[in-house]
Specification:
This protein has about 270 residues and is α/β, with parallel strands linked by helices. It has one domain: Glycoside hydrolase/deacetylase (TIM Barrel). It has 8 helices and 8 strands. Strands 1, 2, 3, 6, 7 and 8 form a 6-stranded parallel beta sheet that branches. A two-stranded parallel ribbon has the order 4-5. Strand 6, helix 6 and strand 7 form a beta-alpha-beta unit. The mean pLDDT is about 90. Bound molecules: zinc ion. The site of zinc ion has 5 residues, from strand 1.
Length: about 270
């Protein structure tokens, strides 16, 4: 950290300074636990130091007993929350974009993968997950969404480009790895600043966006420089009065309550 300037965050700091009196919620979703887990633990430490719970999307078939035990311990200490990230993180599509829960899979196959993945992950962590499903590549079909409701899942988390659904959902709005590859840290700060301003404006207008800023991380892609920058970002978000770190599952509960109220309204 020493010698690393944090002025790359100035646009985000300005957006937070300009924000509403009520803080905007933030969450940090890290995908692909089960792969390169030696890089996951330092990220958990970075978030914990700022008092932020890291939302970990774990690949059920890739979580080893050792990783499952570590995840369970960290969840017990409220340092992380564990969500289900597909079943195997395998692409089943013959053409087009990668998808584990895509149109190439029948409803029966998807249901089997959802429940087998949940059973595997709960066995690995010796307890329940949050009930939030994070589809690999942030993609699934409307069939998947229907199955999540039938099978008792609590919520879904994809990205903001995904199709709309009435199922409770909390979406990420920025991808650390893509943004840093495309435009470095200024691209991250710019994207997050835009997200803060959109949410601040949307809160008044009821624009239907997830009322939170969600940043997607992939620990396997994070080097030392990324972690240093994340320390700076978390330091800003954790202590700025315009921001508040809220676990994804709590946001999902709020989304569920809001959806329930909307459904009630639509019946009257
Ligand atoms: Zn993934």
């Amino acid at each position: 950290m020493t010698g690393v300037r944090s002025d790359w965050l100035d646009p985000l700091r300005a957006a937070l300074d300009d924000g509403p009196s009520l803080p905007v919620a933030w969450f940090f979703r890290d995908d692909d636990a089960g792969w390169a887990d030696d890089r996951l633990w330092p990220l958990v430490e970075v978030c914990a130091a700022a008092g932020a719970t890291l939302d970990v999307a774990a690949i059920p078939e890739e979580v080893t007993p050792a990783t499952g035990e570590a995840l369970s311990r960290l969840a017990g200490e409220a340092m992380i929350a564990i969500h289900q990230h597909g079943r195997s993180h395998i692409n089943h599509e013959a053409t087009g974009r990668s998808c584990e829960f895509g149109s190439a899979r029948s409803a029966d196959d998807q249901a089997t993968d959802l429940t087998a993945g949940r059973d595997l992950l709960e066995a690995a962590i010796d307890g329940p997950t949050t009930g939030v499903f994070v589809p690999p590549w942030n993609r699934c079909t409307e069939v998947t969404v229907g199955l999540l409701a039938e099978l008792g899942f609590a919520a879904l988390s994809r990205d903001e480009s995904a199709f709309a659904t009435s199922f409770p959902e909390v979406r990420i709005c920025a991808d650390w790895t893509r943004l840093t590859h495309e435009g470095g840290l200024p691209a991250v700060a710019g994207s997050l600043a835009c997200a803060v301003r959109r949410r601040a404006a949307g809160r008044a207008e009821g624009d239907g966006l997830t009322p939170a800023v969600g940043l997607m991380l992939h620990h396997a892609q994070l080097g030392a420089a990324d972690l240093s920058a994340l320390v700076q970002l978390l330091d800003l978000v954790a202590y700025h009065p315009g921001a508040e770190c809220v676990p994804l599952a709590s946001l999902a509960s709020m989304a569920g309550a809001t959806q329930g109220a909307a459904d009630d309204d639509s019946r009257t």
